[in-house]
Design brief:
By secondary structure, the chain is an alpha/beta fold. It has 5 helices and 5 strands. The two termini are 29 Å apart. The relative contact order is 0.22.
Length: 116
């Protein structure tokens, strides 16, 4: 089957639940002839990702970590701060964690696009 493009409006939708839906479309689990070892997903365009919402106190409590492997170079960024600057990156990280941890994941995440 030829891949199609799904356009999803993220305004007033919960980020986690939307990420599950997008991950299933990117993987192709909604298709009749789905097999886990083939990359048969569709393209997904997300609109208005900056208007998506989070439940609970995630904007204050959830943190993203990174480390440069140098001593003392452990950085943490709150979700609220990162979402204000780059909402696309926050959503991409959420979807990336829901895709299978194998060679197909890099191909699948490339089909995720964002519109303003």
């Amino acid at each position: 089957m030829k891949p199609i493009t799904h356009t999803i409006d993220a305004a007033d939708k919960v980020v986690g639940r939307l990420a599950v839906e997008v991950a299933m479309l990117l993987r192709g689990k909604d298709k009749i002839d789905f097999v886990p070892y083939k990359d048969m997903g569709d393209f997904v365009k997300i609109k208005n990702i900056d208007k998506a919402k989070f439940t609970g106190k995630k904007l204050q409590q959830k943190k993203y970590f990174r480390h440069s492997e140098w001593l003392g170079h452990y950085k943490e960024t709150p979700l609220g701060e990162k979402f204000a600057k780059k909402p696309e990156e926050v959503f991409k990280i959420a979807v990336y964690g829901m895709l299978p941890k194998n060679r197909l994941r890099a191909k699948m995440i490339k089909r995720l696009r964002f519109e303003k």
